[in-house]
Amino acid sequence: MKKSILIVLVLIAVTSQAQVKKWTLKECVAHALENNISVKQSLLDLELTDIENLQAIGNFIPQVSMGANVSENTGLGFNPLTNNAQTTTFLSASGRVSVGYTLFDGLRNFKEVQRAKISKMAAQFRLTKMEDDISLFVANNYLQVILNKANLTVLTSQNTITKDQLKRTQELVDAGVLPEGDILEIRANDASERQAIVNAENAVQVSLISLAQLLMIKDYQNFDIEDEGYDIVDEGISKKSVYDVVESAKENRAEIKIAEQNVELAEKDVQIAKSAYYPTLQAFFGYDTRFSNSAAFIQDIDPNNPVILREIGVVEDTGQTVIGEFPNTLTRKVGADPFIDQLSQNDGISYGFSLNIPILNGFSVKSNVKRNQINLERSKNQLEQAQLDLESTVYQAYVDAKGAFKSYEAAQSALESQELAYNYAKERYDVGFTNAFEFSQSKVKFDNAQIELNRAKYDYIFKLKVLELYFGIPAMELKF
């Protein structure tokens, strides 16, 4: 008994592992947004704006630098402590710490911080647009797979009917009720349907592979989607006027937000360029010290003979020699002071302000301002063009959605008519009032009407969701 239970559990586990995961549309969209290369690139662009913002904030922090120099001189050189020339070998070192801070630069730093914030918002809007585009692209490919599967289901079910009809017709031909040509016609129809089924199966596989590649999924064989539960879900967008959709798109769409941010960026660039017209005031502070291991020569008073007499001149009138007393010194060589002591003995500080007033710079500032003003006008034109393009695109999407709905309604009516015609032809064929060719033609029209209804249905679903996206509904909140 335990062995049987174990075998059943193993079979259940193997069966569950063999089941292929079926991806929902939301799972596909979420996976694409996480793994799509274009989205990753947009995220990197967003990270770059953080670096730009960090650099702009760093301009408000004092600049601190440290430097050190160590050298050994051999031969004739200048002692860095006494500044005397001497011929010897000595080691010298110096160090410096400097601090600088910009007190005023025409408000350039403030403008650069503001520009960095605008740049980040623009990058965020570009990321949003990229995510919307990827979501729609995934949804379109997803619905294409569902359409191909629905068409395959139609063709398979209709071929089942054909096979049943083929069996009944064969019986009637064998009984002599129908001519041999009827069975040949139905066999030809069956062959055409089986060929169409093969083509439909290939279409399903190709569309699944295309979707898997879009999602960066390598396991094509085990990739499948959930094709149940997707129907026309109208959030009321079809009842709104095209003007409402256009105005909502202008307020919410990332295309307009990006163009608006580009205008603000261009305005900040003009302000930053104009800041070069103003003087720049900087404060600075420096501390430096030095060390040398060279020996020094000191003059000491001779304790045994502290004074010497030396002739200093002659009295002109009398010719008498004038004698003066001078200190009698002895030269003594002493070693260098310790390193730590010299750092405090030889240090010094400097501080003050630096003012730079631009007067003539070859029109470089003026040219830069003019260049940025032209870029500003270009950005304004691009904003206006983006608004016109969006308005045109929304109008086209609105018309496409309305047209797709009418096409869907027409396809429904056509299917109802073709179904009645098919049932009528089938009844006439079953009692021998029509031949197999006429019946096959009616069946082909019925099959085509079902396929056309599937196409019109999913085409309308996609175009309706495009319109909802333009209206401002986030891509991940679209309902199918």
Structure report:
- There is one protein chain.
- With 480 residues, the chain is α+β, with helices and mostly antiparallel strands.
- The chain folds into two domains: 20-61 and 105-278 and 358-477, Up-down Bundle (Outer membrane efflux proteins (OEP)), CATH 1.20.1600; 296-334, no CATH class.
- The protein is built from ten helices and ten strands.
- The chain has helices at 2-18, 25-35, 37-58, 108-174, 180-214, 242-252, 254-274, 339-345, 364-430, 436-471; strands at residues 22-23, 63-78, 85-104, 224-225, 280-292, 296-301, 307-314, 321-327, 329-334, 348-356.
- The strands form four sheets. It has a four-stranded antiparallel sheet with strand order 2-3-5-10. Strands 1-4 form a two-stranded parallel ribbon. The chain has a two-stranded antiparallel ribbon with strand order 6-9.
- Strand 7 and strand 8 form a beta hairpin.
- Helix 4 (108-174) runs antiparallel to helix 10 (436-471) and helix 6 packs across helix 10.
- The longest helix is centred in the first third of the chain and has 67 residues, at 108-174.
- It is elongated, with a radius of gyration of 46 Å.
- The chain starts with a helix and ends in a 9-residue tail after the last helix.
- Residues 1-18 have low confidence and may be disordered.
- Residues 1-18 form the signal peptide.
- Residues 249-276, 366-396 form a coiled coil.
- GO terms for molecular function: efflux transmembrane transporter activity; porin activity.
